Amino acid sequence: MFQDTKAFSGFSVNDIEAARSFYGETLGLRVSEENGLLTLHVAGGTDILVYPKEDHAPASFTILNFPVEDVEKAVDELTARGVRFERYDGMPADEKGIMRGWGPTIAWFTDPAGNVLSVIESPS
């Protein structure tokens, strides 16, 4: 039934302007806005909808993963841009917030609305 549809994902934030700045300036994604909604344009032609929600509650799981060849380099660059990396109980991470050796190398951070994102190692 849906095999030929181009599905997309979306998530809520409590502040569209803060989201636009974070995703567009801090992360460097192409962002567009229409009717108070943001669209994140990511590689591969996929779009992600970001919508405002007054009673927004941050997701308690990773809503968006950014595959990168070098997680440590991505963490260093994002840290220099003011991004703070998260550490979770039972998920051992180094001093930079990078978890290694328990699956793919990964580091988690949050957007201004508290939604969880990651940079995750992806072989080239």
Automatic annotation (TrEMBL):
It holds the Pfam family Glyoxalase. It comes from the Bacteria. Signal peptide: none annotated. This is VOC family protein.
